Amino acid sequence: MTDVNAALVHVNQVKNQIKSKMANTLIELKNIKKIFQVGGGFLGSGSKNLTAVNDISFKIEEGQTYGLVGESGCGKTTTAKMILMLEEPTAGSIIYDGQDAFKTSQSNPEYKKNYKSSVQAVFQDPWASLNPRMRVKDIIGEPLEINTDMTKKQIQARVDELLVEVGLQAYQSNLYPHEFSGGQRQRLGVARALSLNPKLIVLDEPVSALDVSIRAQIMNLLVDLQKEYNLSYLLIAHHLATVRYMCDKMGVMYLGNLMEEAKASDLFDDPLHNYTKALMSAALPSHPDIERDEIILEGDVPSPLNPPPGCVFQPRCLNQSKCTCSKTPPTLKEKKPNHMVADCICCTA
Predict the structure, then answer these.
(1) Domain encompassing residue 273
(2) Is the predicted pLDDT of residue 240 greater than 80, yes or no?
(3) The pTM is what?
(4) Could you tell me if residue 228 is inside a domain?
(5) Residue 186 lies in a domain
(6) Is 101 inside any structural domain?
(7) What is the pLDDT of residue 20?
(8) Cα separation, 65 vs 124, whole angstroms
């Protein structure tokens, strides 16, 4: 067995151990919508509305991983930015600790501080996300310096502890980011995200910029840390193999809409929506001897400035001639136990 396969088997074993625990909801998105105004002239005259995220809802459980997949521009990163409080929803709410995060943050600075400490991120590019002019001890220690009353000695001890935790050495705290490899820099990003003992970490394409063998190592590290600290992850990825091995539950987005949601294993084994089927067919098989037909969708993704009425997937649907949802948008319905799909007759046929 190769090192990559062995690492992925380990990920699966640990993930199954985490699944066996009783999980409670950590954070819940309720009917979240995000509309941007683009173009136009002075004071926004003549501007157009771009709906980046359109009325989506899902929950992230304690100690588990929720994956978001879909084509570029479907709204995954905008959703993550709202969870990170980098963007404010146009409508809907994000429920954390029993309260609407954005509304409560406006009147309760302590709640806002606690929320931002509890929700951290690991970004796609480990080089761009680290300040090249700062030493590692300052990059990882800065959140502690700002958000805690720890002394410099205590911060340094915590930084050393975190470096060892992510597979590096304590002495490397005096180095600069350019003195590390790509995989090591991503470990630094993970260490920084862990510094404030978060409950949720947003993983925005955390392994896509890394070599295949290094990807498996980082996935292995993330799952081990999840088990140790009971972390929750929101994983955004295009690489479906990463999603399959890391996620407990996942949602499929298209043009700002949630088209299907289910346990990861159920969704990969039996996708119900035609868009999900097309996504799965486009991914490389797990073995070169596996043969399967690729589903080719006609046309391009419609512009979010002028989305089609009714079902947004209808113009590209394989059964669009039979479509019955060209005017009324389909709603998510449970077609199988814990398996939700946009209730469109033609798109699920």
Answers:
(1) 3-133+176-342
(2) yes
(3) 0.88
(4) yes
(5) yes
(6) yes
(7) 44
(8) 17
Distance CA 272, CA 270 (A): 6
Inter-CA distances, 82 with 33, 40, 55, 202, Å: 10, 25, 13, 11
pLDDT of residue 155: 97
Q: Give the count of domains, the chain.
A: 1
Neighbouring CB atoms inside 10 A of 12's CB total 14
Query: For residue 311, what is the domain's CATH number?
Result: 3.40.50.300
Q: Specify the amino acid at residue 176.
A: Y
The predicted model gives 246-266 an average pLDDT of 95
Both tokens of residue 157? 């001890």
How far apart are the C-alpha atoms of 101 and 112, rounded to whole Å?
8
Two structure tokens written together for 230 = 């009971």
Contact between 234 and 203 (Cβ < 8 Å): yes
249 phi and psi, to 5 degrees?
-140, 155
Give every strand in the sheet of 99-100, ordered side by side.
48-61, 25-38, 91-96, 99-100
pLDDT tens digit sequence for 152-193: 999 999 999 999 999 999 999 999 999 999 999 999 999 999
Of 44 and 309, the structure prediction assigns the larger pLDDT to: 309
Residue whose tokens read 């606690």: 114
57 with 30: CB under 8 angstroms?
yes
Place of tokens 């929506």: 273
- Token representation of residue 126: 């480990």
